[in-house]
Write the structure tokens for this entry.
Amino acid sequence: SKFSLRFTMQWTALFPFGGPDHKAIQLGDEAYLQRKLASRALRVSDTTANGDTLLHATAGHSQRDLINMLINEGADPNAINNKGETPLHISVRTGRDYETARRLVAHGADICRADKDGRTPLHSFYNDATSQLIRYHGDAIDMYAQDNHGMTVLHWASWTSKSSPQDLTYHPPPPHPSAHSPFTIKDNSGKSVLHLAVERGNAALIAFLLSTPEADVLALPDHERRSLLHYATASGRIHLVDFFLERQSGDVHAADAGGR
């Protein structure tokens, strides 16, 4: 009998950070890149030393038109660098604009792909890109997924003074086998989304979370026995301290694990 073997080889070369190819990406020089790709002096699979592809670099510089061109040339929207990050991770983290992230998602970028730290693109500090992705693509987000520190997308969205209750409620999560709300998930330190909102002084989010059915669970002390009043005091925001004292939220004499 005859056997036929087919080998597919993916050639990868390094393009230096700060070199002419990288500069062309920074400037959005599509004509230059098309010439290099056509001559095979550059390939869409080429990477920097840390594993970033041309598409990673393009996403980091928010060059929207280059995204379309590179993907049409065969660039993988879910390629990963040495940290396991996709171009969408880079786009969201830089947070320059939502449109860049939207184009990547439209071309098939996986919004739930986790990097080596267990973080999806939305396990990132709150910015315009994260806000809009939650708003318009929330039904595709796993609100229960935790990164290596135990934080969910809701934790990250709460860990800012700029997010609003709407950011946490645009898309109610589907029923989960555990039957609990994603609001009640604690990170590895025992922090809830409410602890993080207090830490950042997000008054609107604090008021919203305290009005939810999960409020009693959210307000429980963390693993170091730090209460909401501890967090309010540590934040240095007197109005938050007064707020919790008026609500009689927590024992003013209660000490945390460090005796404070």
